[in-house]
Amino acid sequence: MQRKTLIYGAAAIALLTLALVWAMAPRPVAVEVAPAVEARFETTIDEDGKTRLRERYVVSAPLAGRLARITLLAGDAVQAGAAVATLQPVLSPMLDERTRREQAARVDTGQVRVKLAATGIERAQVAVRQADNELRRTEQLAGNGFVSPTQLDNAKLARQAAQKELDGAVQERRVAEAALEEARAALQAVSAPGAAVGPRDFAVRAPVSGRVLRVLQASEGVVALGTPLLELGDTARLEIVAELLTADALQAPPGTPVRIERWGGPVVLDGRVRRVEPAAFTKVSALGVEEQRVNVLVDITSPPEQWRVLGDGFRVGLRLVTQQQPKVLVVPVSAVFPRTDAPGMAAFTVQDGRARLTPVELGGRNGTQAWVKGGLAAGATVIVYPPPAVRDGAKVQARSV
Fold first, then answer.
1. DSSP string over 347-387
2. pTM higher than 0.85, yes or no?
3. Are residues 141 and 41 in the same domain?
4. Within a 10 A sphere around the Cβ of 318, how many other Cβ atoms?
5. Domain check: are 102 and 80 in the same one?
6. Digitized pLDDT (tens) for each residue of the chain, 401 residues in all
7. Is the domain of 254 the same as that of 207?
8. What is the CATH number of the domain that holds 206?
9. Which of 64, 127, 195, 345 has its CA 20 to 30 A from that of 75?
């Protein structure tokens, strides 16, 4: 009986010891893993952009006048040379009764001067006839030797002087008639402004074919020289401007491919950087940080049928591809980390249920992937987001992400 009790006691102690050993033994660390695969890799710069016309035209009034109401609306298509606005001469200002009477008096004075000029012409004509008669008599007497040659010369000069007087009288009548016409026109404008000389319309024409972007002066009214009337532009010639940080802009030289997303259409559009402007500017971010940014201009290279609905000033999302590799070894970017014991990067791989610290050489990283140039083989299993408990040689229990 005592022997059986000892056996049972020893077995219980052994079971208890095994239980304690099992409880105190290290557990495998649960980790998430992913395979190293060959795939396309690219690094991008993501930024918002805004569409704008390459060229816009502000049509202004080429002269002062009265603008007729513009019937064009924003979005209407116009052809080069088509009339987009009409200008008319400005009417004379309204005057008081005193001014009207003064103008009427000037008309009367002008009529009297015309009559006086006509009388002067008649008087000059009589003087010319009289000089002609005197010249003929003097010539006859000179032919018979009754007058001296000097007297004949005086008669000829008198005839010329009389003719000049007639010519001057004719010119005076023309001046009087012109002044009378001017006075009558002024009186007509004062008496009945609407009945003045018929207005001559001046058509303001479109310099290019395109669409109306904005009508700046739609209502009828008097406009000054150079007043902006409307804006025109060809919406088929759009470009995109993005304000990039200067450090990012240096990585996106002209020719950089661009993917245009989040513009409202069903497809992703293709584009290409055309120009990086040479002058940067300071812009305050939403967090109040001053940033140096520069405008980067992007051309849309997709067929126009795919982005015809885009207009001026539309917001789009840009993804500028700064590096791309068609087929390289990639792992999740969360699987690589800087080494603490030596320079460079490393990753934890899973081999025979244990974590192994593996140095790796990276070719680049983006928001989701890391390009591994050396240190890993295709198909290797790496630990994603390694927990703090993972060490080189630690047992791990893998579950795929």
1. EEEEETTEEEEEEEEEEEE-SSEEEEEES--TT-EEEES--
2. no
3. no
4. 25
5. no
6. 566 676 766 776 766 666 665 555 566 888 899 999 999 999 999 999 999 998 888 999 988 888 999 999 988 999 988 999 998 887 666 666 777 777 778 878 878 888 888 888 888 788 888 888 887 887 777 777 777 777 777 777 777 877 888 787 788 888 778 777 877 777 776 665 544 444 578 889 998 888 899 999 888 888 888 899 999 988 888 999 999 999 999 999 999 999 999 998 899 999 999 999 999 999 998 888 999 999 999 999 999 899 988 888 999 999 999 988 889 999 999 999 998 888 899 999 998 888 899 999 998 888 889 999 998 999 899 999 998 888 888 888 877 55
7. no
8. 2.40.50.100
9. 64
Query: Which domain covers residue 214, as residue numbers?
Result: 56-89+201-233
Cβ atoms of 8 and 295 within 8 Å: the answer is no
The CATH number covering residue 174 comes to 1.10.287
Beta-strand relationship, 238-245 and 257-261? unpaired
In a domain, 10, yes or no: no
Q: Residue 300 burial by CB count (10 A; 0-12/13-18/19+): exposed, middle or buried?
A: buried
